[in-house]
Please model this.
Amino acid sequence: MNVTFTKMSGAGNDFIVIDNMNASLRLSETGIRALCTRRTGIGADGLIMIEPSDRYDFVMKYYNADGRLGSMCGNGGRCAVHFAWSVGACTRHTTFEANGNRYEAVITGDETVRLKMTAPTDFRDRFDANGYSCYYINTGSPHAIVYLDSTDTFDVDTSGRAIRSNRELFPDGTNVNFIEITSSRSLKLRTFERGVEAETLACGTGAVASALVSYRLGKITAERVDVTVHSGDILTIDFSRDMNEVFLSGPARVVYTGRVAVN
Ligand SMILES: N[C@@H](CCC[C@H](N)C(=O)O)C(=O)O
Model:
């Protein structure tokens, strides 16, 4: 069967996005993994299907590159909103469902989307993880946080994989974020992603986690934080002081559209 897809980039986090609003398509884990594999497939950090919802404009189903259902994807959510709007599934201001939660978003420009996130949970104060001083928070996805003096030449893959695979600390695995604080309202971020099992060029829920933990620790003092991700793009996180209202803003771009054979 041939399927039409759109390849999108959310600040460098890249996704295969498919319109499944008529709920006719079912993809297997191996099929999704094959599509997401670089060189032999389309290649992407994850695959997103937008599907019909009883309560909201649509449901976002997010699969990691390993073919398994992922937890919340912030950049994927922003791309899904832009895509859903482009196929007429919603207006520029939309509500949708992902991982059983309600999300609200606004398309703020030609290629920018602002997404309201869920309030963070499960903050863990400093602990040792594989020799690193580490923090933890769940922003819709699980995130470990490590502070570095400089992220530029750091080996994210080796250390990220070690922490991600620490089953004693993270039985379900975790995404791992390495942060360099660059001012009282900005930071640089590099993320090792669970489900991709490699560093990605950006991570939305990771950017949110980095901003909120840094604010909580007093490393950041503003309630609006610019996060420069590995692609060089900037994701902006703004939030209320109690962190109950949290927003993720940044680019969501169409790279190309195509048709592909799926099993
Ligand atoms: N890249 C995402 C996070 C995706 C979820 C994650 N890999 C997981 O299932 O742990 C983002 O932009 O938030």
